Each structure stands twice: as C-alpha cells, then as structure tokens.
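Per reviewer request, we include the raw input and output of the structure prediction for the construct analysed in the revised manuscript.
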Amino acid sequence: MKPTSLLPAIFLLALLPSCTPETPLADAYGNFEAREVVVSSEVTGKLLEFRVEEGETLDSGLQVGLIDTVPYHLRRLQLLASLQALPQKKINADPQIDIYVQQRNNLLREIKRGEALAQSNAITPKQLDDLRGQLDVVNQQIASAKAQETISNRGILAELAPSKPNSNRWKTRSAGATCSIRSREPFCRK
C-alpha cells in the first residue's frame, strides 16, 4: 500500500476525537422578551450624574440623574438683564414736545399781535396767514412726536410681554434638570 492512500485514513482518525460532545446541553430553549424603557430628560445638557446600575429595579418617576444646569441659569440671567434694560430703551419725546409747545405759544402771541396790527392795516393779511400756517405746522409736529413716541414704545413693550414667561420657563428648567423614568406604570416593582 502506498503512503498516499493512508493519508485520508489518518486524517479521518484525527477528526474522530473532536466529534465528541464536551460541553453540557442548554437548560432551556425559547424566545426571550425584554421590556424597553425610555429614560429621558426634560432638558438637554451635559449629564453630570446617572445613578443606575444594570439590572437595578426602578419605579416610574424616580430621579436617577442630574444634568448640568449652568447654561440654563446663565440664559435666565441674560433674559432678566434684557428685561430690566427694556424700560430704559423707551423713548421720551417730552423734551421735543416741550420745544414745540413753546414755539406754539410764541406763535399764538404773534398771531394776537398780528390780528391787532391787521385791523389797523399795519401788516398785510398774507403775513397773518403765514403765522397761522406756522402754527398749523407746529401743531402737526407735536402730534407727530407723540405718535412716534407711542409707536416706538409699543414695539419696545411688545418685546417685554413674551420675555416674562420665558424667564419663568428658564427658571423652572434651571431649578431642577433631572432624568427620570417616564412610563405610565412602573416597569419593575421592589
């Protein structure tokens, strides 16, 4: 017999010991089900603390973590500072209006004088009409200054209204940013 014909026989003899079962059989077979639970936070941020170990039993609503609240606190301070600055941005047209009122008073005095002079034909009717025209212009300037003040201040105060609830929302968020189990019922009971 040739040595090459013995080669397959030796190979089969070498594989024979590896076919014996050395590991024990499984105790059970079947499908395993896992209940998935979402752990979420009310706000985003850096997770500073997370007190949960794998396999630990937790109840719904339990605080299990802590999120860094410094960015929310700084944002709240920024909102409060802008709220305090808004009233200072209001436009006060009173000094300009006071100037126009003084001009109007001067024109009224000049018109009385002009009417007396017009009766004695010391001035022409055109000069009196010019004074009355100047009075109309000053009255319109007063009305315009008041309207501009109202419109500008309305815009500034419109910024104030939505910012107040925002500052309270940021206060709430920065006060207690925590992670908790959100489920309709506890997924595990102790």
